[in-house]
Amino acid sequence: MNSRLRIATVSAVSLVALVGGTTVATAQESDPAPKSCDGVRLTGELPAPAPGQAVSGQITIGADCRPEPASVRSGPAPARSARAAAGHQLRGWNEMYDCCNIRMTGLYTSSSWDTADGRIPTAGTTATQEWNREPWDAGWSLAGQTTKDGCVTDCAEVNSEAHADFTYQGIFDPTGDWYANTHHSYIQLKADGTATCRFDVELRHTFVGWNWRYGCE
Q1: Which of 67, 107, 126, 153 is positioned for an S-S bond with 183, CB 3.0–4.6 A?
Q2: Strand partners, 134
Q3: Full DSSP string of 17-50
Q4: What is the full DSSP assignment across 175-216?
Q5: Exposed, middle or buried: residue 197 (CB in 10 Å: 0-12, 13-18, 19+)?
Q6: Distances (CA, A) of 43 to 10, 99, 134
Q7: How far apart are CA 194 and CA 88, in angstroms?
Q8: Cα(104)–Cα(65) distance, rounded to whole angstroms?
Q9: What pLDDT is stored for residue 15 in this prediction?
């Protein structure tokens, strides 16, 4: 899991027609059948679904170290996501899983906003982070996080962003220099009650079978 690969940059673009979203993946080409892969940046954009619905995407690092085409799904949101509060509510997630489907790192946003007379009187977005620790006090750690709201009162629209940096030091890399995940979430709230979710993740190194999951509800 610690052999460094010689890599040339390539791009893969996938247009998702199911929900009108787009996903772009920029990755590196490598030797056949590798295990550990060099760095990658993945981007996904989704229109926020109607109340009570959820939309999500997933990209997996394939056997050739290239991201596979994105799969996008939509359907009912889990019962825990019912919008009981007044106004408009939106939850977003941006998660990285390993090849055993263990969540390594995640960035989550929760937004609420009111609308009146073609404006947004009040709005706000909060962010939380989660990461996987190993039993011997090792694993992933939160290195830093930031959040920003472009406007929160009397807005034509609200653009919020959240960022989280994670590092890893543990059984798969005792040095702490090989793996690092940086998550970015961008939420646009509109005065007509609609919204757009955009997500990025930057990985210092990857591994075949790692998969990125993102979505909003």
Answers
A1: 107
A2: 138
A3: -SSS-EEEEEEEE-SSS-SEE--EEEEEEEEPPP
A4: TS-S-EEEEEEEEEEETTS-EEEEEEEEESSEETT-EEEEEE
A5: buried
A6: 15, 20, 28
A7: 9
A8: 19
A9: 26
> How many residues in the chain?
217
Cα dist from 187 to 74, 120, 161, 190, 193, whole Å: 18, 14, 6, 10, 13
- The answer to whether 25 and 15 are in contact (CB under 8 A) is no
CA–CA distance, 51 with 84 (Å, rounded to integer): 11
- CB-CB contact of 132 with 167 (8 Å): no
Residue 50 has pLDDT above 90, yes or no: no
Cα–Cα distance, 187 to 199 (Å, whole number)? 9
Which residues neighbour 84 within 8 Å (Cβ) at sequence distance 6 or greater?
Answer: none
Rounded CA gap, 162 and 184, in Å? 6
Block residue for tokens 């997630």:
93
Tokens of 157: 């629209």
CA distances from 97 to 136, 139, 212 (A): 20, 13, 6
Condensed to tens digits (0 to 9), the pLDDT of residues 100-116 reads 999 999 999 999 999 99
Q: What is the overall mean pLDDT for the chain?
A: 83
Mean pLDDT of 152-168: 96
Token pair 């969540």 is found at 103
